[in-house]
């Protein structure tokens, strides 16, 4: 397990160290992140899905388990921060998001492709759909409903929907799935550059995570930081495990990934969304703590799942 996790966190640590040295400005780091999200990661998703049989991608059992686990973790987080901690609706929604939104793009893909290669494309694509079509829009809707004197939920959902249609990752999922369904392959002159861009995704994503965390302060509400961290790294995967027991997922890769994906730390977009609830300081600190602590928790989860690197001849 250490052999799997260590390269991931070494690249995160490299980015963090270089970020602390100030070799790249915050604008540079944001540019790296945009390249990953807009170019490299969509190329990786498309390439993986287009070369995978559609039956290995579309699994309703995985969608139900991961979707319910994410909604359950978000709901528990929202209830805790709203009722027990006394937060307002927007803050509780954002902190619930932190307990349910995995960093699939920047950590999930590098980790899962090490373990399962192209077979990881199916579960990871479903994760992205759940996170971008269900979890994030639900959070934004709750924030809009709580912060606006005259909330327009329908207008908010329409705006979110239009944005989703322009999201490169989701476009890549649709195009890759269509190619898989039709049995169409890109000609070599196009397939090669797509594969080259896909290869840039994992290392640059991990480096970007570290560099973006370099400027984060640990100031904030310690109880909230601990609650978000525990919720994301322990509650979310525990819910996935319980649901997996209730709703078995037949494919072993999908069955492993549903728990492993839930154990991945919070997505880097978390503090950006938290700006709408004026909770950036606490959520940024929680993102840093959860990412650091996940080095240990992911090793434990992978040990419990019996995950190991594939043997190479």
From TrEMBL:
It comes from the Bacteria. The chain crosses the membrane at residues 6-24, 31-50, 62-81, 93-112, 124-143, 164-184, 196-218, 225-247, 253-273, 285-307. The keyword Lyase does not apply. It holds the Pfam family Mem_trans. It is found in: Membrane. It is a multi-pass membrane protein. Keywords: Cell membrane, Membrane, Transmembrane, Transmembrane helix, Transport. This is AEC family transporter. It comes from Novosphingobium ovatum.
């Amino acid at each position: 397990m250490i052999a799997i996790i260590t390269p991931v966190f070494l690249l995160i640590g490299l980015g963090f160290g270089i970020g602390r040295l100030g070799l790249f400005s915050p604008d540079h780091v944001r540019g790296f992140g945009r390249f990953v999200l807009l170019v490299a990661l969509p190329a990786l998703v498309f390439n993986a899905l287009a070369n995978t049989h559609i039956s290995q991608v579309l699994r309703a059992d995985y969608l139900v388990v991961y979707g319910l686990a994410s909604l359950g973790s978000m709901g528990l987080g929202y209830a805790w921060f709203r009722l027990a901690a006394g937060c307002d609706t927007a803050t509780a929604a954002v902190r619930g998001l932190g307990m349910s939104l995995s960093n699939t793009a920047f950590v999930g893909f590098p980790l899962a492709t090490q373990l399962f290669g192209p077979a990881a494309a199916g579960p990871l694509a479903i994760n992205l759909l759940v996170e971008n079509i269900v979890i994030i829009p639900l959070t934004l809707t709750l924030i809009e409903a709580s912060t606006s004197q005259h909330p327009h939920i329908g207008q908010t959902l329409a705006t979110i929907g239009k944005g989703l249609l322009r999201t490169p990752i989701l476009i890549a999922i649709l195009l890759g799935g269509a190619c898989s369904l039709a049995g169409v392959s890109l000609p070599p002159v196009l397939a090669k550059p797509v594969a080259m861009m896909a290869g840039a995704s994992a290392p640059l994503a991990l480096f970007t995570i570290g560099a973006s965390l370099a400027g984060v302060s640990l100031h904030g509400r310690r109880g909230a930081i601990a609650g978000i961290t525990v919720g994301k790294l322990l509650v979310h995967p525990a819910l996935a495990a319980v649901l997996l027991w209730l709703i078995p997922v037949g494919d072993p890769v999908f069955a492993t990934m549903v728990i492993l994906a839930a154990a991945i730390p919070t997505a880097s977009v978390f503090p950006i969304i938290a700006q709408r609830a004026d909770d950036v300081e606490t959520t940024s600190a929680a993102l840093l703590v959860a990412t650091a602590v996940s080095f240990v928790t992911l090793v434990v989860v992978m040990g419990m799942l019996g995950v190991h690197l594939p043997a190479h001849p």
